[in-house]
Amino acid sequence: MNTILSNVKPIVVGEDGSIAPEEFTEVELEFFQGWQPVTKVTGKDFEELARVGQKIRAIPKLCWQNARRVVQKLDEYADASYVEGIVCLNGGPAIEHAWVCLPDGTVIDPTLPRHTGVHFPGLEFRGRAGIEEFLSTPQGSACMKSPFFYAFGWGGRNSPGIQEAWRLSQVYMRERYPEAFTNEQGCTP
Fold it and tell me: Pairing between strand 106-108 and 117-126?
């Protein structure tokens, strides 16, 4: 059986064409509450993240693989957190992203070593043990070679942490670039 499809539920469409809201078991709801971020981001260590990126041979556009590799392969990062969330790059859009966070909140981002921006954590897996705990769940086992937020519904929408990361990133982008959110009549939608 395909493990990715085993977690897919059918969409129920009513006679009027409406889509019924998803229903979840207590076990699923409890899973969605797990791995919420606790470490507050305090900044980036640009020298260290460049060194780490070279050491693991970071691959562009594979942030989740790069960050996970840091925690799983480098002994000095065995207790660091693997984090998935949203990053707002200065001058760019808000994007789904993964990075490593030290206990003091320092971001080690091997995929974007020269970029500045703001990181909004959505899910946090504390050290190697946290990663292994997640991967040992039925939902997590389907994410061995993909971002973990995939286990939390489309775009991670069933995770309160991912929802909050998106909300905070949108607030940040509206404050930083208000002109981008103003229509031709000068109104903010």
Answer: unpaired
